Amino acid sequence: MALFDDIRKMYIDGLKKADPRVENWPFMQSPVPIIIVFCVYVSMVFLCPKFVKKLPPMNLKLILVPYNFVLVALSVYMFVEFITVSLLANYSYQCQPVDYSEDYLAVRMAKVLWWFFFSKVIELIDTLFLMLRKNQVSFLHAYHHCTMILTYWMGVKFVAGGQAFFVPMLNTFVHIIMYTYYGLAVLGPHMQKYLWWKKYLTKLQLKQFQFAEQVALLISTEASVRES
């Protein structure tokens, strides 16, 4: 019972150190909603292949085309917003502290970071589409999605701004290209001759993953320091 009380106290004290500006935003009131999303996603990764094992690959073209181009539009919005706000606020692109004030630009940066976090929740559907189409879901794919939703939940909850904007800015740029490719590729084989640049996209994604994991660790460390 004493251990439970200590854990509960740590949990409450940790939430008190969260960014008060985001307290009432969707998913930000407590970690419970994102933990539920995480558990549902992991369950889907393990269970869905068993349900679709005897089914033929599904043709999801009517869903995938609008889905991919909606994510292109969302990525364009976020990338432009990251660039715009960081320039207007004279952000350093090497070491920028978090501004926890109610300043218009500071809140605007926090909001676009929330949208970036929420885009990671939306992108969990990528995995479902892969499994329904009988494409292999790698451990790296699932691990990346799991770490991103948890890391950027912490990022928005505790450090919504500062240097935390840089990797999302790069990621949204990559996703503009990536979801454009996916959207065109799903149109049919006749599009392949126009998609010769796929190998460059793959290299760009791998470089991004390496950099993102390093900065995700930095964000987690900053959030932990703010909790302590």
Question: What is the overall number of helices?
Answer: 8
Average pLDDT score:
84
Q: H/E series, N to C?
A: HHHHHHHH
Using the CA coordinates, give the radius of gyration. Answer: 19 Å
Q: Tell me the distance between the termini.
A: 23 Å
Number of spatially distinct domains = 1
Structural class: mainly alpha
Extract low-pLDDT stretches: none
| Overall geometry | globular
Q: What portion of residues is helical?
A: over 70%
Q: What's the number of extended β-strand segments?
A: 0
Major pleated sheet = none
**Strand content of the residues, in percent?**
under 5%
Described by its quaternary structure, the protein is: single chain
Describe this structure as you would to a colleague.
Helix 3 runs antiparallel to helix 7 (166-185). The chain has one domain. The chain is mainly α and 228 residues long. It has eight helices and no strands.
